[in-house]
Amino acid sequence: MIIINVLEADRGEYMMIIYFVRHGESEGNKKAMIQGQSEYPLTQTGENQAKQVAQALHDVGASTIYTSDLARAKNTAKPIAALQGKKAVESTLLREVFLGPLENRTREDILTSYPHINQIVTSGVEGTETIEALTERCHTQLKKWKKYHASETIIAVSHGGFISIFLMYLFAKENWHTLHRPFRIGNTGITRVRIEGDNVYFDYVNNTSHLAN
C-alpha cells in the first residue's frame, strides 16, 4: 500500500525513515553529459551544494549514512557524514544506472543515434543495465535496509536516475517500469520516505530549499 502524504506524521515504533539525496553538481552535469556509472568529479558549485545539504540534514538523527561508491556521490556524502560524526558506508547497489554505449554523450547526441529511445535510463539498448537487473538492485537494497534499520533513520546518497527508479519500485515493485516515471531529482534534492511494514509514505520529493541562498 502506497500513501502519498506531504505532512509530517507521527513515527511508528517500527518505522524506517530514508532520506534520499542526489549528489551535487558534477562536471558531467555542467557539460550536460549522460554520466551513468562513468566517473565525474564535483564542480565547485557541487561541493558547495554538498555542504548546504549537510547543514539541512544535520539534525535528522540518522543512524547510518549510505552512499554510492561513485566519486560524485561519495564526495557529497562526506560533509553529511562528517557533520554527524559518522563515516559513510559505500554501496554499489546505489550506483547510477549503467548506460554502457550511452555514457559520456549528450542527450541530443544519444537521441540522434537512437531516435526510438523514450527513456534513456530504461532504453533497452544493448550493453545498458536491464530492467531486471535494476529491479534486483532495488529489491536487494530495500531488503537489507528493512533487516538492519527497521526502526531507524538513514540517509542514502545516490543519483538522479537511480533514485527515481527506486521511488517507482516502492510504488509498484517489479511492475515499476510499466508506469510513467514522474520524478525528476535535482542536484542535492532531498526526498523523505517512511516505511512501516508494507506501507510507504512519501513526505516530500526533491526538496532543494536548502539551496535557496
Automatic annotation (TrEMBL):
<protein>
    <submittedName>
        <fullName>Histidine phosphatase family protein</fullName>
    </submittedName>
</protein>
<feature type="active site" description="Tele-phosphohistidine intermediate">
    <location>
        <position position="23"/>
    </location>
</feature>
<dbReference type="Pfam" id="PF00300">
    <property type="entry name" value="His_Phos_1"/>
</dbReference>
<dbReference type="InterPro" id="IPR029033">
    <property type="entry name" value="His_PPase_superfam"/>
</dbReference>
<keyword id="KW-0472">Membrane</keyword>
<dbReference type="InterPro" id="IPR013078">
    <property type="entry name" value="His_Pase_superF_clade-1"/>
</dbReference>
<dbReference type="GO" id="GO:0005829">
    <property type="term" value="C:cytosol"/>
</dbReference>
<keyword id="KW-0378">Hydrolase</keyword>
<keyword id="KW-0812">Transmembrane</keyword>
<dbReference type="GO" id="GO:0043456">
    <property type="term" value="P:regulation of pentose-phosphate shunt"/>
</dbReference>
<feature type="binding site">
    <location>
        <position position="72"/>
    </location>
    <ligand>
        <name>substrate</name>
    </ligand>
</feature>
<dbReference type="GO" id="GO:0045820">
    <property type="term" value="P:negative regulation of glycolytic process"/>
</dbReference>
<feature type="binding site">
    <location>
        <begin position="22"/>
        <end position="29"/>
    </location>
    <ligand>
        <name>substrate</name>
    </ligand>
</feature>
<dbReference type="GO" id="GO:0004331">
    <property type="term" value="F:fructose-2,6-bisphosphate 2-phosphatase activity"/>
</dbReference>
<feature type="active site" description="Proton donor/acceptor">
    <location>
        <position position="96"/>
    </location>
</feature>
<feature type="transmembrane region" description="Helical">
    <location>
        <begin position="153"/>
        <end position="172"/>
    </location>
</feature>
<keyword id="KW-1133">Transmembrane helix</keyword>
<dbReference type="InterPro" id="IPR051695">
    <property type="entry name" value="Phosphoglycerate_Mutase"/>
</dbReference>
